[in-house]
Amino acid sequence: MAIQQSDVLYTAVATAENGRDGRVATDDGQLDVVVNPPKAMGGSGAGTNPEQLFAAGYSACFQGALGVVARNENADISGSTVTAEVGIGKNDDGFGIIVKIVASIPNVDAATAQDLVEKAHQVCPYSKATRGNITVDLSVA
């Protein structure tokens, strides 16, 4: 379900110059990075790229969702990590992305970890935004 504008608590604002071969900066100055295509896509790889930025945001958001779920389940996720792998490749429409989320939750058994990850995927705003649009593979390390 979409949120209404009146329900927005925070809005991030970023501006890109020259697309994938330029610069991206936020209005508050907290992020200001050079972006370049990765070497695998024929670029210099001298800067970050949109896929890395998406992976960083998704992994942080998913870790937050995992924390919410863990509190509700009284599960100990201390020492846990979430890694997001974002791939880009050609598809029927030009290009698309695919995501793999890998969670390491050392203080719970494998079945509990998998359950927590599945539940986090249901509440994570990035997961909600991408649901039905891209493939997101979930796994537990």
Please specify the SSE layout and strand pairing:
Elements (H helix, E strand, L loop, with lengths): L13 E4 L4 E5 L5 E4 L14 H24 L7 E11 L2 E11 L5 H14 L1 H6 L4 E6 L1
Parallel strand pairs: 5-6
Antiparallel strand pairs: 1-2, 2-3, 4-5
Helix pairs in contact: 1-2
Question: What would you say about this model in short?
Answer:
The protein is α+β, with helices and mostly antiparallel strands and 141 residues long. Helices cover 31% and strands 29% of the residues. The protein has 2 domains: 1-48, Single Sheet (N-terminal domain of TfIIb), CATH 2.20.25.10; 49-140, GMP Synthetase, Chain A, domain 3.
How would you describe this structure to a colleague?
- The structure is a single chain.
- The protein has 141 residues and is of the alpha+beta class.
- The protein has two domains: 1-48, N-terminal domain of TfIIb (Single Sheet); 49-140, GMP Synthetase, Chain A, domain 3 (2-Layer Sandwich), CATH 3.30.300.20.
- It is 31% helix and 29% strand.
- It contains three helices and six strands.
- The strands form two sheets. The protein has a three-stranded antiparallel sheet, with no helix packed on it.
- A hairpin with a 4-residue loop joins β1 (14-17) and β2 (22-26).
- α1 (50-73) packs across α2 (110-123).
- The longest helix has 24 residues, at 50-73.
